[in-house]
Write a structure and sequence with these properties.
One of its GO terms (molecular function) is zinc ion binding. By secondary structure, this protein is of the alpha+beta class. It contains eleven helices and 15 strands.
């Protein structure tokens, strides 16, 4: 199917790079087309299958329980995608929802091929001509004299016959009917038109000729290409901002979870208190005499702090405290890694020494067997 507009990347199968067809969801929540998933798993061997996205294992014995149909809203989003009719090359210009395309082709499309109404005729005919009887006989165009089948004469007269003339409804010029579409699109001076600056505020409307004359002196029309570029850039920036906002929300959620883990059991450290005190001293205003003003908290503020209000006066203090806690956690992780590294080094040395001792014993045994074999050979030679 040919889609009218770009499809959301979240609805694209990672295997075939096309919108999902009968989407199936694995236990790891990754979704693929049903046929793509079967073909991918068909080439794998063993009792487990690997997810094409996360490379996670899936037990083949419980494969049916490990897969399920995608949620209904995903299927609904796929069914709402607009596609062009499969008969668009024949002339159908309909844009239909993907979930309704089968009914459109089977019941409503004028360019679907049906069996001829004549029982003795074996050729097909378009639906829009099916009620006119059998049209599979040769005839001649009354305008140009070209010979063709009766079923093709209608399309010929509408689209290709250069001797069939029609009058333009706007300028009254007479021209070949196949050229009418191009004439209305770019040539006819009397076609109703709007100023190219209309999306940006210019209200001028008229014929194509008057609009072309107006555009020369219209400031908004002159700026329209630049404004269009800016609008497209703003839209791209807005999309990028939305992506960054989602990432920021995820980061803040993870930071909050980390903060809850860090402060669930451990009270604030002296370093954190010192950093907050330093920040408070930085934010304290200077008096006219050059001395630093001291803000003495009153009884109400002390009561507010004692009731459990957060000890962060400014966002900078909050960030500094988080930075200090993360630094302490990083230091603890570095110490743990160093300890594990030393343990691993000692274990490797011990294993190496043991392997060396085993090799020494093996060499001694080999030398003993060599000496015994030499003694046996010498005894045999003396006999």
């Amino acid at each position: 199917l040919e889609y009218v507009s770009p499809v959301d990347s979240n609805l694209i199968c990672a295997i075939c790079q096309c919108p999902f067809n009968q989407p199936m969801q694995l236990v790891c929540d990754h979704t693929f087309c049903n046929d793509c998933l079967k073909q991918c798993f068909k080439n794998q061997e063993g009792t487990t299958r690997i997810c094409p996205a996360c490379r996670g294992p899936i037990e083949i014995l419980n494969f049916k329980s490990k897969t399920r149909k995608s949620p209904r809203y995903v299927i609904q989003m796929l069914d709402d995608l607009l596609v062009r009719c499969p008969n668009s090359k024949a002339g159908c210009e309909s844009h239909v929802k993907r979930g309704e395309i089968e009914d459109h082709v089977d019941k409503y499309c004028d360019y679907s091929v049906l069996e001829c109404s004549d029982d003795e005729c074996t050729q097909g005919i378009w639906r829009k001509y099916s009620e006119q009887g059998c049209l599979h006989f040769m005839t001649m165009c009354e305008d140009c004299g070209e010979s063709m089948m009766q079923k093709d004469i209608f399309e010929h007269q509408e689209k290709t016959c250069l001797k069939r003339f029609i009058r333009c409804q706007h300028c009254s010029d007479e021209l070949a009917k196949p050229h009418l579409k191009q004439h209305l699109a770019s040539i006819c001076p009397m076609v109703p038109a709007r100023c190219t600056g209309q999306p940006f505020g210019c209200p001028f409307e008229g014929t194509r000729a008057t609009v072309n004359a107006h555009v020369i002196s219209c400031v908004i029309a002159t700026m329209a290409p630049y404004l269009s570029t800016q609008k497209a850039a703003f839209e791209e920036q807005d999309k990028a901002n939305k992506v960054l906002q989602r990432k920021l929300d995820l980061f803040e959620g993870g930071l909050t979870a980390m903060q809850n883990i860090l402060y669930s059991d451990n009270p604030p450290t002296a370093a954190s208190s010192a950093s907050r005190a330093a920040e408070t001293s930085i934010d304290t205003p200077m008096t006219e005499t050059g001395a630093m003003a001291v803000d003495i908290p009153n009884r109400h503020s002390q009561q507010g702090m004692s009731t459990g209000t957060p000890p962060f006066d400014t966002p900078i203090s909050h960030l500094l405290s988080l930075h200090e806690s993360l630094r302490e956690e990083l230091s603890r992780l570095e110490n743990t890694i160093a300890e594990l590294d030393s343990r691993t080094t000692v274990m490797i040395l011990n294993e190496g020494q043991r392997s060396k001792d085993e090799m020494t014993h093996a060499n001694a045994a080999i030398n003993s067997m060599r000496m015994q074999l030499h003694w046996l050979m010498s005894t045999r030679l003396q006999q």
